[in-house]
Design brief:
Low-confidence stretches: 3-8, 27-45, 113-119, 273-306, 339-393, 552-558
Distance between the termini: 124 Å
Strand content: 15-25%
Helix content: 25-40%
Oligomer: single chain
Structural class: alpha+beta
Strand order of the largest sheet: 6-5-4-3-2-1-11-10-9-8-7
Number of strands: 27
Amino acid sequence: MNKSSRRPHRVRWIALILLASLALAAIALFATMTGSSLSRVFAAPDQARSTVMTAYRQVQNVGAYQFSSDISQEIIPLATAGNVGRSSKTQRVYIEGETDLAARTLQLALWSQGGSVMDASTAAQIKVEGEKAFTRQGESDWQETENFTGGFAPGGDFLTFLEAATNIQLANPAAGGGSGLTRYTFDIDGPSYARYLRDSMQQEMAAKGVLPRGANLDLPAQYVNMSGDGELWLAASGLPVRQLIQLDLPAAGDADYRTKAEIAVNFSYGDAGALLAASSSPLDITILQPGALRGLAAGVVASLPQAAGQVFLLLAVLALALLLAVKSRSRRLYTAISLAVILMTVATPVLQAAEWQRFDNYLDSQALAEDQSTSGINDVLEAYKADQQANSLQAAQSLELLKNDNGADQDGDGLSDARELLLGTNPLVADPRETEGLPPLASAPDDGTDSDGDGLTDTQETLLGTSPFDEDSDGDGLTDHQEVVGYNGQLFYSDPQKASTLDDTILDGQKCLTAPNCPDSDGDGTPDIADRDIDGDGVPNTVDQSPFKAGGQTFGPESQIFGRGTPMNLTINGLTPNAPTYVEFQVRPTNPDHLWYAFNVLDWPSGDKQGQVQRDEHGVDDPQTFFDVCVEQANANGDNWQDVCNMSDDNGDIKLAPMLEIQVSSSNNNLPSDADLEEYGGISVRPLGGGAYPPKVVYVPLNVVVEPNTEERVAFYGKMLYKPGATWGNAQQVRLVWVVQMLVDVCAEFEGGICVDYDTHNEIQPVHTYYDDWELTALNIREDRGTEFAIIYEDQSVANPPELDTVLTPLTVDLDGVFLSARDCDTAIDGTCYGEGTPDLTVSGRGVSAPTIEQRLDRTQNSNVPNDQRWGLPNVLRVVNKSYSQRDEALGKLATIDTPALLDAAFTPFWSTGNPITPSLLFAREERF
């Protein structure tokens, strides 16, 4: 055979090879479109994995199942300074429901705070439909919420964790206990699970046609570093009946805790699994079942938008290859091949570019066409699209928007785009429902009317949400106009609808008495109106007992620092002799890191029987830590240890406690008795030296002051009780000390320097003290002259007593307007009150013999009280008055003595199992100081 005759055969062989390659490419493309379902069925490297994954696919083919699940989640603080003293928390829920994988729906009932599974009204009900989730309680309306089921059932399927199962093994056959169940164990690979979640999200985006080919999402970092293990119990049918999952997730992002979760799920299938149970062929299970066919078809359809360009190119090249095999010597064919190569080289990036263009178009699909007539508000419209919260605009921006409103109305609904932004409606889509119930001024032209004279028109105030008829809508002492236009060159603004813009309990008007030029008390460049720490002492306004003034003359580098050698000298003049007087200290170490030393618990080893510090050998069940001792004492006192003991005390038997040390003189020291101080707040007193009247040292326990929003430790707080004499006498010296408290065992007998017998165990003793430098952030003094309470309840001894709380509830509203406001309105003429100089209603007369709640409302004393002075309420109330020397005594005795005694006397005789009573008490309080 000559050379020329061999060429066609060679070309034909090349064409056939090309054809085979293209056929393989087609198979690969088909595999891409249908997913990895087939590969997972047929690729079974070992029997255990094959069995488990087959069971998983069987559930997919069944398409639906019912479940019940116990879920436990433990939140574990990380070992950081910010978490000192914080203990882990465990949350437990029970859920039951059903899922339909094909329809992508999930319905469940969740119990997390008690309730009965027999009563659906005690559960939170959740349903998931595709990407949306809804919740309700009982039979109330469904409310859309965030879909949180992904944490334990991604995609609505509890078995999804099997996607990341590794090291699958058959467990001990005896574990099934002869039940016919087979148990498998496995590990959960974090990176594999993260890839599965990422791929699922990408497929979902691709199905919507919004993810270009070649674009990849990042792996979720928290799941990449996740670890876990599980068990799967299979019935004889091959279907799962129980799954146990244990997960350990690291901290996510900036979180300061990690999470451990345990998920136990029981599965049932009704009659849906019967068909699968009868099938023995993996091919039958995977290909021939209706659920599998639906899933396969859905996968193909979802992949079509992404694969269309590839299919077109593949078919074109395949046709060229066939043509090459038939007409291998055609010059025209060579030209066609060249064109095909060029097409393959050029068309792929062109098609990919088109996909990216579609992606960009999707992102920009809501964009507004630029219109010169509305360019003044288009920037705001863009912000609306990004956030869709028109009321997020600051009031000043809103006012500026109204001033520049040119009337543009892009959706033609009668409201200008600017007004719609302020009202929170959509300026791009006309919806008649958006204008229903709007006040007339919202759509009326602004004629400049300013009814309250605050500088804002009535129309502007209607759209801004302030009152057109009250110049100070939020009652903070600043006019609406002042708050809207801002302060100090309009760099700072307050909220005209909030009395305290920063929610720090201080009225805006208190911070800015000289508006619009607001003061800057600490000189940090931020006016008080916008400063979360007005006096700059390191303690935020929310918890600062003296937010406008630091304790020293100044704070910061030039502040007054107190220490061991430079104590604070305390002198208080002008007090009433023998009147209980509180002195509240708020202090801050000069090194704020020391705030985190407080109440740290360390451990001293057992078996130390030499020296001053003694710790005997302890058995496993013997109390060894502060927590153990607390539980023992609580049980002995009949208290619930969970209410009085701190889990962090279980770390050991040494504790570092901050205290104020107050050194007082030997005579006229203004102190109550030692017993009163100990009962008041654990304040201890010890003498300094000997003699008949030695100086004394008082130790006042300090508590940590925590900013509630950030949980940051910012200061220490302590309160001292005095009972002053006629004069204060010498100044008292105040220092900040750290007391090392320890559980010690008191030795009774030594032999050779080693204790052989103990008197007592676990006595709490101070073993050492350290002094610290500190600054005073607040000092408040209160001379208490008595506290009175009126306790009001519905008398159960009357004939046909009313339903509980039906009288007390409206009474609270009436007392708000009369008692709390100290109203003096004995006569009203034409809407104007004329009083007699005394309050209309008091607890104890307030020293001026004013009418009392008891005289007016107690049914045994008010026979001469007109019905209108009782606000028309049924005359079924009783009132008990209690008087105390000072506030802390009142709070202590009310909680532990007086309230239980009243409940027992007034309600216990009428309570029975057939007629249970849940009483309510209404407390009205007056304090004199």
